[in-house]
């Protein structure tokens, strides 16, 4: 048995972490990264250690840093590609380099590949398992993002273990754990073969074209905003934006920035803090394009109002037009 159906990809990740790591051991997770890895691991008494991604290289993993985090208690490395919150897609060479680190230290990989099909034109996704015969890889994915159906709770683990390194225990553990909740959503299980086989290609093309158009619209708009620096995404449904906080002296953190943005402009972005990455915020680019443009417009007005340079100019202009009565 090589495929285990789960209650969403979150449940798939939960089973993998539980099966591979013991209390007191550690797993390595990306920074910035999806918060559920930490939540799941720490709930089980498993420690987490973060490895750094490099925004200036399209959020590639800092491989030296990854390697430096590995110790004798490291039970697994979680790799999230394409990434939430970064929208990055790793090149084939980079994927090979990651596999090389795992192979040298004999560490299995939990691959969170829920965005595997969500790559913009011109970019290619390379699954970890397609590029290695030796590293054991538990690949996690599901219907949630590709079919835009978070409530259907259908995900899976695909076990790639050509050398039988995981042996019977890990397979058995995954199977036992998957039966604790008496399987995943049975209605969707019944529909799964038809969903995967009969969905017309136009559906996928349409979703990806929309996301790509939105990412470009958002990037082009945010690029021009004083004090912000967007990082262009290659896939998934997010864009990370650097906030040059010293330009906004009223705010001490990304959290304060997004809270005021919500209060003043009713635009909600998650602060980088949610992904263990201060001084950034994450934009979700799935909203209709007119709303997305309106949101970017409002972010621009907000930034111009609070940026120390543009705010000063506005103040000076306003003062210049005031009639002083003497
Ligand atoms: C959304 C998401 C998941 C979990 O999705 P489910 O709704 O549990 O299927 C897992 N990993 C990442 C990176 C996600 O963005």
Automatic annotation (TrEMBL):
It comes from the Eukaryota. Keywords: Aminotransferase, Phenylalanine catabolism, Pyridoxal phosphate, Transferase, Tyrosine catabolism. One of its GO terms (biological process) is L-phenylalanine catabolic process. It catalyses: L-tyrosine + 2-oxoglutarate = 3-(4-hydroxyphenyl)pyruvate + L-glutamate. Pfam families: Aminotran_1_2. Its cofactor is pyridoxal 5'-phosphate. Residues 3-299 form the Aminotransferase class I/classII large domain. Belongs to the class-I pyridoxal-phosphate-dependent aminotransferase family. This is Tyrosine aminotransferase.
């Amino acid at each position: 048995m090589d495929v285990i159906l789960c209650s969403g990809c979150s449940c798939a990740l939960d089973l993998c972490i539980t099966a591979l790591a013991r209390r007191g051991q550690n797993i390595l997770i990306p920074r910035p990264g999806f918060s559920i890895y930490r939540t799941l691991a720490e709930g089980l008494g498993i420690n987490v250690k973060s490895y750094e991604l490099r925004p200036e290289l399209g959020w590639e993993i800092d491989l030296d840093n990854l390697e430096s985090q590995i110790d004798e208690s490291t039970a697994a490395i979680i790799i999230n590609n394409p990434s939430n919150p970064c929208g990055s897609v790793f090149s084939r060479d980079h994927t090979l380099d990651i596999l090389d680190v795992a192979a040298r230290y004999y560490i299995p990989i939990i691959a969170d590949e829920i965005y595997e099909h969500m790559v913009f034109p011109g970019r290619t996704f390379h699954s970890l398992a397609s590029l290695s015969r030796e590293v054991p890889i538990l690949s996690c994915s599901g219907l949630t993002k590709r079919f835009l159906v978070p409530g259907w709770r259908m995900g899976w683990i695909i076990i790639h273990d050509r050398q039988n390194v995981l042996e019977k225990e890990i397979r058995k553990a995954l199977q036992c754990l998957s039966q604790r909740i008496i399987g995943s959503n049975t209605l969707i299980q019944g529909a799964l073969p038809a969903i995967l086989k009969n969905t017309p290609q136009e559906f996928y093309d349409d979703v990806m074209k929309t996301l790509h158009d939105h990412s470009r619209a958002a990037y082009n708009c945010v690029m021009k905003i004083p004090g912000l620096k967007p990082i262009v995404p290659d896939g998934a449904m997010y864009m990370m934006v650097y906030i040059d906080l010293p330009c906004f002296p009223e705010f001490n953190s990304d959290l304060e920035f997004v809270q005021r943005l919500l209060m003043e402009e009713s635009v909600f972005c998650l602060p980088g803090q949610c992904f263990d990455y201060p001084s950034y915020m994450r934009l979700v680019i799935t909203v209709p394009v007119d709303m997305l443009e309106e949101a970017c417009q409002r972010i621009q007005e907000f930034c111009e109002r609070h940026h120390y340079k543009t705010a000063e100019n506005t103040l000076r202009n306003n003062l210049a037009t005031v009639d002083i009565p003497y």
